[in-house]
Write a structure and sequence with these properties.
The chain is built from 10 helices and no strands. The protein is mostly helical and 188 residues long. It is elongated.
Length: 188
Amino acid sequence: ASSSSSQPQDPSALVQNFLNSLKPGSSSHQQIDKPFTTLPDLLTTTTTIPYIDTASPSEIDTLCTLLPPELFLLSQENDTDPSSSDPNPTPAAGQAAIEALSTDQKRDILKRVLRSPQLHQSLGSLTVALRDGGLPMIGEALGLKVENGGLIRGGSMPLGGGEGVEAFVQGVKRTVEQEDEEGEGKKQ
């Protein structure tokens, strides 16, 4: 009598068994994506605009340095002849434009950016990239302290889906907290 273990198995059954072996946990349950918010849903204007309204002048200045200097140069051009503007402004010209504006003017520009469709579209694109496995490259490019480098624990595959977005948000939080701690250490 021949044993069933010595019989060749159906190739599709072999492939299915292999695929099932790669899934964590029980092979009878399909892995479900962990639900997590999107970046546009997390950074709504109802959340961000009140922050801008209550931010200190130094926080406003810090946020302004994160934006392209052209935004501030354009706001100054409204008061002057636009044909006299330099198409390739220097960083110093951008910084001078920021410094020339009042805190209220800077707040207004930041609010316009936060309400812009371009920002929301970019946040949506970033969410898609994170869900599709881009966390390791995005985290590295932004210098974020992402757990396990954005890879699945004990593996070499990038996190994706809701877990990728959540790991990104946690990485941003961790990076800010560490920078704050390092800044406090330098002040003492």
